[in-house]
């Protein structure tokens, strides 16, 4: 039986531009393919939350607009009162999906593999926040948006999931594949003023 082809990034056409996407104080890169599972369950069902946490290796965040890492290497993003995005390395999704389905059997839930829908860009460096502020209406000041914060918002008129991962600051920007080339091009342009003349 033939092996399945490796996932190809929706941003493959911009690989050269993204490979050199560095400016003074900010870098942009296409993140490797990853698993993304959308999980919906009743936040009042303590047994379901415990079961999901056991499969994931950590508790689902219950505080709005927060993210958590698990001991198994998964990142859990709070998207709404009853919705989370589970992300992790490509290739590990089938096992996790099966484990979650088994643990949540008998509990009202929905689990959907949305890996192929999204691309993720990594923006980091001391000027990363300034670049984002050119196209995002949110207050990204460190006192309101810091490491471990995630939110669904608009960036350059596109819907994204914005997740700050550290104090550098570094951000993961998850966007639908159909909009990813536009957003990457917009970010490259927003970084232009920081490139040496």
Summed up, the domain count is 2
The top-level CATH class of the largest domain is: Alpha Beta
Beta strand count = 11
Which class of secondary structure composition applies to the elements?
Answer: alpha+beta
Round the mean pLDDT to the nearest integer and report it.
92
How many helical elements?
5
The fourth-level CATH homologous superfamily of the largest domain is Probable tRNA modification gtpase trme, domain 1
Question: What is the succession of H and E elements?
Answer: HEEEHEEEHEEHEEEH
The dominant shape is: globular
Largest sheet: 6 strands, antiparallel
Oligomerization: single chain
Whole-number radius of gyration? 17 Å
Strand sequence of the main sheet, in spatial order?
1-2-8-11-10-9
How much helicity do the residues have? 10-25%
Low-confidence stretches: none
CATH architecture of the largest domain: 2-Layer Sandwich
N- and C-termini, Cα separation: 53 Å
CATH fold assignment of the largest domain: Gyrase A, domain 2
Q: Provide the β-strand percentage band.
A: 25-35%
Protein described:
This protein is an alpha+beta fold and 197 residues long. It folds into two domains: 12-31 and 118-194, Probable tRNA modification gtpase trme, domain 1 (Gyrase A, domain 2), CATH 3.30.1360.120; 34-115, 2-Layer Sandwich (Alpha-Beta Plaits). It contains five helices and eleven strands. The chain has helices at residues 15-19, 46-56, 93-103, 128-133, 177-191, and strands spanning 22-23, 26-30, 34-41, 67-69, 75-80, 83-89, 109-113, 118-124, 150-155, 158-166, 170-176. It has a six-stranded antiparallel beta sheet with strand order 1-2-8-11-10-9. The longest helix is centred in the last third of the chain and has 15 residues, at 177-191. It is globular, with a radius of gyration of 17 Å. The N and C termini lie far apart (53 Å).
